[in-house]
Amino acid sequence: MTTLSRFLVSTLLPITACQSVASTDRPGSAVSAAPASLTAEFLRLCDLAAPELKIAGRDTPFYAEAYAVRALCAAHDVTGKSVYIDGARTWADRMIDFQRRMVPAGAYYMNYGRKPGATTGNWNVADSASIAMGLLAVAVRAGDPADRARYLGSVRAFADLVLTNWVGPNGGICNGHWPAFQGEWWCSTSNFASLLFLLHRETRAQRELEVALGAIDWLNRLDLMTAGPMTIAEKGATIPFYVLEAYSAAWPHLEAGSSRQRLALAQLDRALAWADEHRAGAKGSPAWDYTTLPALKVGGLPFHMLVAARTFPERAVLVASANEEFRYIAHLLATHPNPSRPHTSPIHLRSMPQLAVFTMFSLAEHVAPGAIYRAAAPAPR
Question: What is the pLDDT of residues 33-52, one digit of tens each?
Fold first, then answer.
């Protein structure tokens, strides 16, 4: 059994209902809604991830690494330990170095597709927006104003590139230089909208908010069950995970009781109901094979359950669903630590399959509620 598998079994299988525990490691630390033991074990997982992110030249997709970066930033909020933010900063600096050499200017290198310096090849908005959210998480925690400006400037350059070129006529976002499909698409729309909501909290630019809300309107009209290309039958948990990324970031910006919020909540409930019909954690026997590509993002679904439960008290039952998933994934990773098929082999950190990375992202919401969407702290007086 791998170190990660032992960690997940010892940590997640005993999870019961969340308890309210205040983290008092340092002034200003996040308030935890998870048992103290879960907090400790989440940080052990972060201890595995932080040094891995300092290793350059790994054949891993940067969009997945960005979710680990965001979790590490949440871990830094809880503990103040420099090892977490150092790993995240090293990764962010590497992304900026690649970005400086990308064509078009402002694009991020994804560790696949178009390479730095190339003028042709696939480059997409969706995965690049995930990378941008990783850099933004680092930016809001930068103590040096020059560092904050550098990271924020990188995110701003990417956002401006997309705002100038790929906002569609109906409010959705097109996916950049993506030959598979040129129209507005659910994944690029969801990921970029999530980024814009978070970026707006830092810059207060009205354009960002307007486009993000337009993207929510586009998603509100989307039939999740039939949307393509790459349908829910093909992509499984990928669609609800990414679409809900937009909604989870949007909730503070949707007027209570408005038509926009009602439609958004209906989409949330629809996505989670569909996921509940397929989740292995809820059924006890897998409708999805969590070790196959269509289901790898299922580890991120508890994040959206927890955000919704925190935002809307009437949906507090979602905490229990999230805990079911944590238990099941722990068991799965313990019994399938070394998948043999190429698309299920570890594609992120050397000891961490992608399923575990997205579970780590969800655990951050357990340990430090709200830290994933944290805005920059006010400047000291």
Answer: 444 566 766 787 788 889 98
Q: Give the tokens for residue 150.
A: 């550098």
| 3 state SS for the chain | CCHHHHHHHHHHCCCCCCCCEECCCCCCCCEECCCHHHHHHHHHHHHHHHHHCCCCCCCCCHHHHHHHHHHHHHHHHHHCCHHHHHHHHHHHHHHHHHHHCCCCCCCCCCCCCCCCCCCCCCECHHHHHHHHHHHHHHHCCCCCHHHHHHHHHHHHHHHHHHHHHCECCCCCEECCECCCCCCECHHHHHHHHHHHHHHHHHHCCHHHHHHHHHHHHHHHCCCCCCCCCCCHHHHCCHHHHHHHHHHHHHHHHCCCCCHHHHHHHHHHHHHHHHHHHHCHHHHCCCCCCCCCHHHHHHHHHHHHHHHHHHHCHHHCCHHHHHHHHHHHHHHHHHHCCCCCCHHHCCCCCCCCCHHHHHHHHHHHHHHCCCHHHCCCCCCCC
Stated pTM of the model: 0.88
Kindly report, residue by residue over 341-372, the tens digit of the pLDDT: 333 333 333 434 688 789 889 999 999 999 99
Q: What is the CATH number of domain 3-13+35-219+229-373?
A: 1.50.10.10
Alpha carbon distance 111, 113 (integer Å): 7
Domain boundaries defined on the chain: 3-13+35-219+229-373
C-alpha torsion angle, residues 303, 305, 307, 313 (rounded to 10): -160
CB 215 within 8 A of CB 173: yes
What residue has token string 């054949």?
59
CA distance 375 to 343: 35
